[in-house]
């Protein structure tokens, strides 16, 4: 009888020790978002053989990290021309000359968990005999893409840039309820804002055409928002 009691006590102690000694399970955390370094935003690359560099991510679990880079001809990355994966914080690619490109990078840990993509940088590759470079695609400021807004007066806002920094930019704005918008409501605007009047329960589409003073024209993508 005493032997059985001793065995029971020992079993309880072993179970208690096992439970107490079990290390807590650490949840996997995605690595941090890489920050882009080179080529810098809105850069004119003299050579079409381009070296891309970014700062390393950190991983709270000390997992090994690899990076995925994407290079596209549009800011939505629907037209990706180059991509690659590596544990290094740089990649080299040969691209077309006299072309605008957009690039971004994300980090992925050894367990498959990835960060969000970095911010998007743009650059132009130099072309032989090219005198004027087209403006970059415009950037949306407000209203946010697919936003739901109140039916009242609204200000459309955007930004644009040109690697030819001395070029003066003007804007044509197309706006309406058809996709793509065909109604031009702003012509050769010098400001990157435009006030519009909207009504309720509709979906609106708009785009900006950026023009420089040397005849260069860049057609922006179509943006949209809805009203209550």
TrEMBL record:
Entry-linked InterPro entries: FN3_dom (IPR003961), FN3_sf (IPR036116), Ig-like_fold (IPR013783)
Domain Fibronectin type-III: 30-128
Signal peptide positions on this chain: none
UniProt-recorded name of the protein: SusE-like outer membrane protein
Organism field: Flavobacterium glaciei
